[in-house]
Specification:
By secondary structure, this protein is of the alpha/beta class. It has 16 helices and 16 strands. The protein has 2 domains: 176 residues, P-loop containing nucleotide triphosphate hydrolases (Rossmann fold, 3-Layer(aba) Sandwich); 181 residues, 3-Layer(aba) Sandwich (Rossmann fold), CATH 3.40.50.
Length: 379
Amino acid sequence: MTGQVVVLSGPSGVGKTTVCDELLKKPQFARVITATTRPPRAGEVDGVDYIFLSKDRFLKDIEAGLFLEHAEVFGNLYGTPRNSVTEFLQKGQSVLLNIDVQGAETLRQSCEFPISTIFVLPPSLADLEKRLRGRSTDSEEVIQTRLNKARVELAELHHYDHFVINDHIDDAVASIFKILGIDPSESPNLEDKKQPATILLGVMGSIAAYKAADLTSKLVQKGHDVHVVMTDAATKLVDPNTFLYLSGNRVHQDMFDENQIGPIEHIALTDRADLIVLAPTTANGLGQLAHGLANNMLMTMLLAANCSVLICPAMNPRMWSHPIVQENVKKLRDFGYRILTPDSGRMACGHTGQGRLAEPPEIVAEIEAMLEEQFKVSG
């Protein structure tokens, strides 16, 4: 199957998310994490459920052309990151987008990729109202707003390539596979043939630690076996369970974990690793590694490692430019560590300058390049 953009639209409450979840169980489909300006709801994780951005950052990303499509829904902005779509399509997977009629119209007019648009219908408006009330999450005013919006959206049905009625979820999913000419029993012939690697991802206590979740997801999607090691400071910024769910592997924090079974863990992990990635790396982490200090599991592992190490710094611009930090960077490069220079831009602290963690796609590209180099050397 050739990868394409598959757009699913429909009124709020019609069950689009459930349909998408069923489709995404098949390897023919991939999900792109949507960026939004709305605040996270209880239990939602940044970089997993949505990419949560400030309105200013979102508008700048629009100007930079980073979204395949974007729209305003109920006062909040939503957008589909272009680079993620490109990545999946190049592998032969179809990208599933759950977006409203406004976003679908934008894509229909401007999308540079093959696209199929599908409208998901309720059996009737009465059934839709019943579903909305059954959720018991919205006020009467919100329910009426959603019903009025549904009537407007239904009038756009004729613009879509196909439609399905979501009366029974299994029937709706089967109809979509038939529409797209996909046999759900067949595995897609993905174009990405690179050998999977065992990667240790070290996460330190920078505010940029949230990007490590997106990085983990992208590496797992490429088939890599990712094992995350967090410092105590990092666990204060991102819940370790986030990495557990994304990687499918236990997250390592404590060198003296009472639940440890088998060989000395910080040595065993490094013996298995093809590559160690530190993202984000703090100024403190750079200093510790440059001077051979090992007061936590991550630093002990780094000193015991016999594989390549990629360091991705993230810190305040003044800290990055400080002579001591630059001296540590030079020392680490002389030791043979690969350092991915941080980006420039506005920081969470309000300062502007060089020090932002490189974006996950850039880090993934560097990882793939390093693994390719290792493959050529071993070959």
